[in-house]
Design brief:
Chain lengths: ~425, ~80, ~425
């Protein structure tokens, strides 16, 4: 019997707020962070709305030495890791020599940094390219920088499955824990707020071209026509339940089940595989569909994809068989950070017994037959299912169980202090 | 371009690599090892490349690695400037 | 339950060698494939040499539509995956899509296509607010390197776990290591796994120029990559891919597959030291080697061949030599160690998988590929690096290692399967 994998700390940086408390309170109030792009002039572009992180001043949180060599998303990730470790009251130096590692999800790397260096190369010449370009943009950068900052010398890694990556990274961290590593940091933080990254994202054909923030991202709704990109995500400290108990720390919940599948190519005639991912994740958790109190949906906001997700949910849970929510409607889709943020929100929901709302979707498509939660709903919750899909056919499903109410006020206070 | 002073050199380093952890403790940085000021080889490569562009000079690779203090670095820059003028 | 993993198929795209046989012929002949860059005019760059692949995607069987939408790195991966599947003899009846997955490593993804498209939408770097009118439809596929694994999965028909792994220059070991984990834990029976990179583009050359990591040697491109030699002064960029069919051992035996080698151990550690620098003592790489050997239940004395990372930078070759001594003890001085980057350059994320292929072929053929261009050994690198000429030697256990930006240090152990029966 392998020990359970538990979440003992989280660091959240989201358009809805910096820190767990700010994010949760904005989410519960249904306050969407979608608005016009401010980090560059969005007016030349077909899509002009984003969910940006506001009020983040990297220099307030990170040493000056790290700033010239880091992209925006790496700075966010470094701070998320700091906060997660503080929240878990974990001091890596007190662990065995190779006792902790990092697994992050990446989608497109530090694209803003890369854009700047490409511009220097092509407008001025190769000698203008920064020495930091050799790593600041690449997909492995967040894992590398976090491991260096905290001296984490255990097994580390980076998984890229577009928007599904947050869950895959946490599952990989769980594998390392099961192999005997005492602690892992896992999750994803992302964002590519530059014109070059924006144009690249537009070519997915899935970005909303709406001008009204309240109408731009309507997953499962009538009029769904794409999504809005956002910045941010979440990183977690994951530990084995036995070692966390030895440390005397509380936990938010348990990573109880996980599975990943991949859809056959369009036109193959073969069925999609999200349903199988859900069923396998439930099996892995030893859970029945009835044990799941809420589903955090992938919520693509593209009719075909919404329909496919609704079909999978109906097949497993029955029509209107489980409450479904998409707090992403407030943050947009965060690349590799989105699923990790959903996991954070799910753990907070389990802890507090409240399902956070899906905003702006005033008219869900009736044929989907899903119980979409438009307002916060107070219900006893023991387990949640988080779904994530990546462009091209990646599916991931994760079952989390609550910490059985064991998380005490001292932990909540710690979350408060680590925000400041 | 005017001659590179230690003040200007340190400004450029800060722009290229941030505030070194050892800067505050050093009264006179001239003879302090870059590593003690908080700057690694990467910081010095970034700085050297910036100075090459700003001053229109070439700094040989090995000599950049061997110039481990601001004084040695300034000497290297002045020698290179004299050679190119 | 003790599930073991065998390599049952190998596919390779390497400089001067599309196809596994040509790759192995090149290595065992000790020939080098490094040359002056032809993809663009390298004269403005400090480093002007690379190991390029002469690759025609249409001739290799990709459709015009695939060629249009896939970056070169993805093309390499798909072509290698097809060769490995054909080699494995794995066909529809034995290939259950839900029990088959794909993991492809890549350090820099579609960097060539991204740069090419950037130049178009920015009008040669002149427009900061790049022009969406000129953005091609497939740009998003280049933007996210997950598309590499997705394309391979579509081609193979895999519907199990699929991912791209991107851990810089250890991607090619870590992707295969991850796939092995998935088979061992029971998630999949077959994994198509390997790595690919096609980084030879102006932005990559410029960023390695900026940190002086690549060799500035221009006079004789064929001898530019000189791991462990006293005169080495940086690595030579390469490109390519290697993809394997990995199978749960009993699954492979049941269908009578040819067992090329077993992947018996894998581990990765981080140096948590520096994004590009290495501590001289090789401590974390040694720990990765120790952990991989422990997983393989193999002692250092059993290692009959070490495929080194051997990039040819001053610091790497010293770091690695120290790591071998720390992990293998006195045996480090007896075991043959070689660096194939001397012949095919350093293809970043891909090279780890190309090196796994070299180990599997060494086990199968009893031939150890040499370190080319090693004429004057560095006194600080004092092991047996198999200089210049391949060596016949029975190899039952091989060790391969990788080291990458971000501090990643990985090690993998390969073993002969059923040697006595053959």
């Amino acid at each position: 019997m392998t020990a359970a994998t538990v979440v003992t700390g989280m660091g959240v940086l989201a358009p809805t707020g910096l820190g767990t408390t700010a994010h949760w309170s904005a989410t519960l109030r249904g306050r969407s962070a979608i608005g016009p792009i401010t980090r560059f002039d969005g007016t030349p572009y077909s899509s002009r709305l984003a969910a940006e992180i506001n009020g983040f001043v990297a220099a307030d949180h990170l040493p000056s030495r790290l700033l010239p060599q880091t992209d925006h998303m790496t700075r966010l990730a470094l701070v998320a890791a700091d906060w997660a470790l503080q929240d878990a009251a974990l001091v890596p130096a007190e662990l065995p020599e190779y006792g902790a590692g990092v697994v992050t999800a990446s989608s497109a790397g530090g694209f803003e940094f890369g854009h700047r260096e490409l511009e220097k190369l092509w407008s001025k010449g190769p000698e203008h390219v920064s020495a930091y370009q050799s790593f600041a943009w690449f997909y492995a950068v967040n894992t590398g920088q976090i491991s260096i900052r905290h001296g984490l010398r255990g097994p580390s890694g980076v998984l890229v499955t577009e928007q599904a990556g947050g869950l895959d990274a946490i599952a990989q961290a769980r594998r390392h824990l099961r192999a005997g590593i005492p602690a892992m940091i896992g999750g994803g933080v992302d964002g590519s707020p530059c014109p070059w990254g924006w144009v690249a994202q537009q070519t997915s054909g899935r970005l909303s071209v709406a001008r009204d923030p309240a109408r731009a991202y309507l997953p499962f709704g009538e009029g769904a026509a794409g999504h809005v990109p956002g910045d941010g995500g979440a990183l977690f400290v994951l530990e084995r339940a036995d070692t966390a108990a030895e440390r005397g720390v509380r936990w938010y919940g348990e990573i109880a089940g996980y599975a990943a599948t991949f859809d056959p190519p369009p036109g193959s005639g073969r069925p999609p595989t999200l349903r199988r991912a859900i069923e396998r994740a439930l099996d892995d958790a030893g859970a029945a569909p009835a044990d799941i109190g809420v589903v955090f949906a992938d919520a693509a906001g593209v009719p075909d994809l919404d329909r496919a997700e609704a079909e999978a949910l109906r097949a497993v849970f029955g029509p209107y068989g489980v409450p479904v929510t998409a707090p992403k409607t407030m943050t947009g889709r965060l690349g590799a950070g989105g699923a990790a943020l959903d996991l954070a929100t799910a753990l907070l929901a389990l802890e507090r017994g409240v399902i956070p709302p899906t905003v702006n979707v005033t008219r869900p498509v009736p044929a989907y037959e899903i119980d979409l939660v438009p307002r916060p709903r107070r219900v006893p919750l023991t387990a949640a299912l988080v779904l994530a899909r990546g462009h091209g056919g990646f599916n991931a499903a994760m079952v989390v169980r609550g910490g059985r109410g064991t998380r005490l006020p001292d932990n909540a206070r710690r979350s408060e202090t680590c925000r400041s | 371009m005017q001659e590179l002073t230690v003040t200007r050199l340190m400004e450029i380093i800060r722009e290229c690599a941030g505030e070194g952890e050892g800067l505050a403790a050093a009264d006179d940085v001239l003879n302090v090892e870059f590593s003690d000021l908080g700057y690694d080889s990467l910081a010095m490569l970034e700085t050297a490349s910036r100075i090459e562009r700003d001053y229109g000079i070439r700094l040989p690779d090995e000599q950049v690695t061997e110039a481990t203090t601001p004084r040695a670095f300034l000497t290297l820059v002045h020698d290179a400037a004299a050679e190119s003028s | 339950m003790n599930r073991r993993v065998a390599i049952t198929g190998i596919g390779v795209v390497a400089p001067e060698a599309v196809g596994t046989k040509r790759f192995w012929d090149l290595l065992t002949a000790g020939r080098t494939a490094t040359r002056r860059i032809t993809f663009f005019d390298p004269s403005p760059f400090r480093s002007q040499v690379a190991a390029e692949v002469d690759f025609d995607p249409l001739r290799e069987g990709l459709s015009p539509q695939q060629v249009r939408r896939m970056d070169r790195t993805t093309q390499f991966a798909v072509v290698s995956a097809r060769e490995s599947l054909a080699d494995s003899g794995l066909g529809a009846p034995d290939l259950d899509p839900s029990r088959t997955g794909v993991v492809i490593g890549s350090a820099v993804g579609a960097t060539m296509s991204l740069e090419r498209e950037y130049v178009v939408v920015s009008d040669g770097g002149r427009r900061h607010l790049v022009d969406e009118e000129y953005a091609v439809r497939h740009l998003f596929g280049h933007f996210v390197p997950s598309s590499i694994a997705a394309e391979v999965a579509w081609d193979v028909g895999a519907e199990g776990p699929v991912a791209t792994v991107s851990t810089g220059c250890t991607s090619g070991l870590d992707s295969v290591g991850h796939a092995v984990e998935l088979i061992r834990e029971g998630t999949a029976d077959v994994m198509v796994a390997g790595a690919t990179d096609a980084p030879i583009s102006p932005i990559t050359m410029a960023c390695f120029d900026a940190i002086k990591a690549t060799t500035p040697r221009k006079d004789d491109p064929a001898t530019a990559s000189r791991p462990f030699d006293r005169t080495r002064n940086g690595f030579v960029l390469g490109e390519g891919a290697a993809v394997f069919v990995l199978e749960e051992l009993e699954h492979a035996r049941r269908r009578g597959a040819r067992l090329r080698a077993e992947i018996s151990g894998f581990a990765t550690r981080s140096n948590a030291y520096h994004m590009t620098g290495l501590r001289a003592d090789g401590r974390e790489m040694a720990e990765a080697i120790r952990a991989a050997l422990a997983q393989a239940r193999t002692s250092p004395q059993d290692v009959a061949y070490v495929n080194a990372h051997g990039s040819g930078t001053k610091q790497n070759d010293r770091h690695e030599t120290a790591a071998f001594k720390r992990a293998l003890g006195e045996h480090a001085y007896r075991v043959p160690v070689s660096g194939i980057k001397s012949m095919i350059g350093h293809s970043l994320g891909a090279i780890g998988s190309l090196e796994i292929a070299a180990c599997a072929l060494a086990i199968e053929d009893g031939v150890i590929p040499p370190t080319a261009n090693l004429h004057e050994p560095d006194p600080e690198c004092d092991l047996d690096y198999v200089p210049l000429r391949a060596r016949e030697s029975r190899v039952d256990t091989a060790l391969t290692v990788g080291s990458g930006f971000g501090g990643f240090q990985s090690a993998m152990v390969l073993s002969a399967v059923d040697r006595d029966d053959r």
